[in-house]
Amino acid sequence: MQITSGLPEGFNAGAYDMIVVGAGYAGAVCARRLAETIGYRVAVLERRSHIAGNAYDCTDEAGILIHEYGPHIYHTFNERVHNFLSRFTKWTDYQHKVLANINGTLMPVPFNHASLKLAFGDERGEELYQKLVETFGKDVKVPIMELRKKNDPDLAEVADYVYENVFLHYTMKQWGQTPDQIDPSITGRVPVFVGDDDRYFPQAPFQGMPQEGYTALFEHMLDHDLIDVFCDVDARDLFEIDETTVKIDGKVYGGEIVYTGPLDELFNLDLGALPYRTLDMKFETLDMDQFQPVGTVNYTTSEDYTRITEFKNMTGQILPGKTTIMKEYSKAYTPGSGETPYYAILEPENRELYERYLERVQNLTNFHPVGRLAEYRYYDMDAVTNSALDLSDEIIACHA
């Protein structure tokens, strides 16, 4: 593998069997699988100055490993995804825990046995917990919609508390919505965990942090003799698209193209911009060993920011006397502003606009949109990896 900034003089796209646009999960997985499985020579074009996409991590001025684009917490139920990624990293035993700051009291989320006693007092909280156990059993996640369906005043009391104090105000900040704009189907999925497990992903069999960090994972994944990575290269400056072909430097490109960027930007937003939410991230280095007891504290009833992340709590890094935290402020994404589009707003009219863009690439020869942006979906890291593995399977099968 070679990683260079910019394209070399005389770059010949035709020398490559596949062009991958984007060096995040979707692009890196496809590049590695096609290179090692069927011997494709692959050029990865990355618009940013680094690999690893939004999972990129680096050391800040205080020497603390931070996630520059927000916290990435690895967890999955998918054994194939876990086995594939585990080829490129060893994992720590980190188990993610989240607390909600509810009117100054820190309570585990998802709401659990301990949360109930903190919210309602020991005696009443235990009564409510036992009612949950009698109704649903132990060690299960129960959406608050299911609590309400029972027409039981005790269960409704729990549902109302969780809705108001854990979900409502946090969601208003996260998505910029008023209560009447929040989809009831999303509201109903907010879970209560009937049990004592205070992990955020209590049932995920595979979870942790890459021992050397995410960027190192990507370095290992892309480390193959048939893969070249070119950073600081915007594929939109190279591509000429007509109804059935993609030209690079005026020549029809005959290989495979894996595209992981936004489809609307590929066409200069000519049908309109796909809306996203983005984040302002404010990093602060503090002169203390530890700021908060867990990696993430959600501010569900107060503050303008949605949550605070403390990276040392997640990575296990030991650096006495210093810690770096990050506050997240959610806002609408402005195309062309240099902001990062994080969360697709999956309203029906937005999905319809995406489908119109998708129609324009479906007749392009060997052009494959994949990943969070190219598919206009909300994906966790494991889901992006799985989508890229599936696409790789398809391309490999066609080659056979």
Automatic annotation (TrEMBL):
Domain of life from the UniProt record: Bacteria
InterPro entries, A to Z: UDP-GALP_mutase, UDP-GalPyranose_mutase_C
Pfam families linked: GLF, NAD_binding_8
Regions annotated as coiled coil: none
Keyword terms of this UniProt record: FAD, Flavoprotein, Isomerase
Ranges where the UDP-galactopyranose mutase C-terminal domain occurs: 166-378
GO cellular component: cytosol
Protein name: UDP-galactopyranose mutase
Chain's gene name: glf
